[in-house]
Predict the structure of TonB-dependent receptor.
Amino acid sequence: MSRKLTISIFYLLFFLKIDVVESQNHPQEKQPLIRVIKILETRYNVRFSYVDRVIKNKTTILPDEDVLLDDALNILKKETHLDFEVLNNRFIVIKDIAETETSTFNIQRLDEIIVSNYLTTGITKLNDGSITIKPEIFGILPGLIEPDVLQTIQAIPGVMSTDETVSNINVRGGTHDQNLLLWDGIKMYQSGHFFGLISAFNPYTTKRVTIYKNGTNAKYGDGISSVIDMQLPNDIDNEFKAGAGFNLINGDAFAKIPLSKKTELQLSLRRSITDFIVTPTYSQYFKRIFQDSDLSNNNNSTSISQNESFYFYDVTLKFLYDITENDKIRIHFLNVNNDLNYDEQSTVNNQSEALNSKLSQENLATSITYTRDWSPKLSTTAQLYVSNYDLNATNFDITKNQRLIQENEVFDGAFKLDINYNSNSSFKINGGYQFNEVGISNLEDVNNPIFRSYIKEVIRSHAIYNEAEYLSNNTKTRVKLGGRLNYFQKFDMLIPEPRLSFSQRFLNHFRVEILGEFKSQTTSQIIDLQNDFLGIEKRRWILSNNENIPILKSKQASAGIHFNKNKLLISTEAYIKKVDGITARSQGFQNQFQFVNDTGNYTIKGVDVLINKKFNTFLSSWISYSYSSNNYHFKNLNNGEALPNNTDIRHAISFANTCALNNIKFALGVNWFSGKPHTVPSASDNPDDDVITYESPNSSRLQNYLRADCSATYNFNITNTARGSFGISVWNILNRKNIINTYYTLDDNNVVNTIENQSLGITPNISFRVHF
């Protein structure tokens, strides 16, 4: 080969390579707009705000890396026929040009995301300290094949349940009644189906869940431990969506139906299948929840329980009506119900008798909301709601010829007015007023001997709140400062509640966060006797009387630092919280303090650590560790000295791996925490008396808890408009026997019996769903 020919081939290959490289670096194939704007956000350090329907099905080419931001936006505008309005050097709003020409456009600044996949897809941490969950795009967590809202939040560091239920969620050492649960702005008093094993809120109609552990917005009153705010879709997009599915516990269906351009109906129905078919999952759930109840505990060998019937359901409905571009009305309805019936049969005087015992639990909620946009900067929202909770039990004891009726009812009516003013993209003000009237009644009725007690308390409260929020143009600094002033009419008492949230980004990949809050609460749950309400739902709601049942007050401060780079997140947060006004009866003591009334406080100090690494597009792992020290201080108990809290879990570790490849998702994880405190009988206990003599309260610990879970889902297309999903999960795959509670009783011969409540054993579940 001649030298001239060699040089010619070399130049030919060189320029061919350049052309190939340039074509790779500057692809002219159109891509989905959502993918392109994510690339541009990283490239130019900006944030795009948009309505999902505006960018849906839009495609564009990816602008060259060397073009300026303005030129890149012009390319996108030409390709998509959308308008890209630059608010400042940080925020860009995407608008439909046709809509902009015919209507006013209300710009809403969105909170900046610190971590988009906090644990898995659909879980996000924001720069105000809150964590959001979007069930619609939820990924997968170990042991879960469906986005159960209250099960999902237990994966967050500092949030756990010591007995595996969603009706006993402990956030930083608090009891479950200290959590504020809101469903579209309505306070809920029942959170679980199957008496706590399943969330009572259908995740497929829930658009967004926001969780605050500290630094709560001033508009939230009540809930001294946490806020769990569940929100349904609130915009009319004129798209029909529906779905249905089932698992080994329940079946459900939901639909989002446009009725006209201005109206939409959202509805869902879920019902258990447990009264039609007995599945392995139901058997494990039944064994777990009823193991320490009147249904399973029978001290008389001649009496048996049979013909048990259990079912649950929930119904949700939301009607959306856009009166004008600036006036919107929303109507909400929710009904959550659990129902249990069983027959107790016995032979008395050679005659067979059978009587029916039953337990029903229901939360009915309804509201109407009106939103008015006065201008692009000013909007108001007014809501009127009613939430009614009713727990009713009838218990027959054949051998004693006794019938016991118990009822606990809560009626909560409220009016809320919320005002938002966005001065500009950096400064906004939120304020408002809230009125609540809460009435709680408790009934006990015994026929032999005849006894009836009915107590009802009512508290009316007024609250005003205001807070200002500043976000720097480069979004590195964020400050939210506000407060809430509560007035309790019955006690003629004012309680101020300051709130603080501060976030500062530095060195590009670090962020420091400082949160603080004061909060108060007038509702709480107590336990009179461990076998109240058939021993299944032992807790009943009560109101503060500002005497032997004080208003609960909490103070909390926390400081954290977060590092996020190269898909590695390291987060550490230290906190201290003190809660005053707790009663011994609200803490569930099962020792020498079980029947003692006293008031006191608890103080918890702790640290939450999370390390999350996403290795590539389909594999990620995380490990979290929580340390806390939680102690009671009661006036008259334990000689006034500190004792460990009943929920004092010193160490908790969670580890998980998730993998998403094509349409298959898989998750495997392990949960471990140190044993919680309990009290054992003293070795010097006198067997001849009728009481148990105990050691020092909460001086012993249960065995450490260990559970491994796994889950997998497969998504597939059924038709062009329908897709399906199949999932399988196994809870406690090692079938480990975890003791979640131990207490002691005396039998008729004064012999001390040890009662051990076990966690769920190995529990499989499968699901199948169709989405349209």
In short: The chain has seven helices and 45 strands. The longest strand covers residues 351-373. The longest helix spans residues 3-25. The domain at 3-102 is CATH 3.55.50.30 (Phage tail protein beta-alpha-beta fold).
